[in-house]
Amino acid sequence: MIEDRLRQLNITLPVPPKPAGSYIPVVTSGNLAFVSGQIPMQDGKVQYTGKVPSEKSIEEAQAAAKLCAINLLAQLQANLGNLDRITKIVRVSGFVNCTSEFFEHPKIINAASDLFYNIFGEKAKHSRIAVGVSSLPLNSTVEIDMTVEFS
Question: Taking each helix axis from N to C terminus, what angle separates 58-80 and 105-120, rounded to the nearest 10 degrees?
């Protein structure tokens, strides 16, 4: 069970963050769930802000990506009722708030991809983009969205 795996990894899913705009956190269509972009929010506050590498290190950005991944799972649990319903992580899109010279985006988004693999195993193998952008909502360091298949 996914709950057991989360406990083994010492991860507690939070109450999912409320949307910061005119959208809903999860849209389902058929057996696909599309999760809106999540930023590194915890207890109602952005935990990681600023650009990589001038204001945040790669390691801090990786922690931000992991927190985004946890928020994505919290949104899915709230919408699907049970993460065991996930049969496949289809796609992950990662955005890194960075300087124009930075080019190691995959290293940062790997933190989320690796976490998904540690939780879901083979079901977590997904397609992905990892891109740098000049800014993100609330000056967050990372934003990630995802698409999953569920039963």
Answer: 40
Tell me: the pLDDT tens digits for 13-57?
999 988 888 999 999 999 999 999 999 999 999 999 999 999 999
Write the CB contacts of 11 (distance below 8 Å, at least 6 apart in sequence): 70, 119
Whether CATH 2.40.110.10 fits 32-150: no
Domain locations in the chain as residue ranges: 32-150
Q: Is the dihedral of CA 11, 25, 95, 32 positive or negative?
A: positive
pLDDT in tens, 114-147: 999 999 999 999 999 999 999 999 999 999 999 9
Query: Taking Cα atoms as reference points, which of 66, 59, 60, 12 lies closest to residue 39?
Result: 66
